[in-house]
Amino acid sequence: MTGQDSIREHYDRYGYVVVPDLIPPGESDALIDACERIIDRTRAGNWPHRRVVGKQFPPYGNDHPDSWGVQHVMHPDLKEPVFARWYTSPGLLSTVTDLLGCSNEELQMELFNLLINPVSHDFSLRWHRDDIQEDVDEADERAALNEWRYGVQWNTALYQDSCLWIVPESHKIPRSPGQREVSRSWTPDRHPSEMPGAVQVTIQPGETVFYNSNILHCATYSSKEKRATLHACIGDIKGGSSRARNILQHGLKWMTSPEFRQTLPDEAAKAMLSRLIEMYNASNAGANVVYSLKN
What we know:
Pfam families: PhyH. This is Phytanoyl-CoA dioxygenase. It is built from nine helices and eleven strands. It is α+β, with helices and mostly antiparallel strands.
């Protein structure tokens, strides 16, 4: 980010921005400790909600013993209150409202997961946009990009993280022919740098990269490099149901339970949850799950 750009200006122009120091003093060690506990639990087979090597997008299933992510870190069964405390912390929410151009009263609680290194299998995600399938035509791609303004996704590194690759400014414009070819014919042996315009994003411990999740992006996961990266998103209710498919495909019925509401740190956090539940109920998510992308 240049000295002349504000965080919001950089985010709007390029589709991403790196922000330091959003973990409050004293919380970093607590987050690291909680992550280690849930990673151990997941790798031991004692937490079923995980991202499975070989599956890039929901539904992840359980067909492979190795994992590249832990789902639902705020789940009451994990008994790790530091995650909800940080997700709803004032500094983080202030940055989110700045990027979205909304108020705290318009924030919608969404996803909070953890990205980790596989133990014994290197793994790559293909180039994609989170809620636009790779085979759409240019007109449909442009229409979907214009709609995707009401949420922000982020990765916060607890250890140095160079997994993410993005194409800056691709959150606004359809793919070029060269970009379309790479994103439609991705295979694991292709290097991310083959994507025209791609840059690798490195974040240091404590840094956060916020990005529009319909920017062109992919990721590489090395079994040899320790990773524990907090991966989350928050929405703006002005978007109505536009985020429902992409958010609810992760299976959020547990978030409608009284047990989860009781774990939240304050009334503002509970209000964020209530806005999510309104979208959940309006979308009839329990009866009809629709997935954004194909594995």
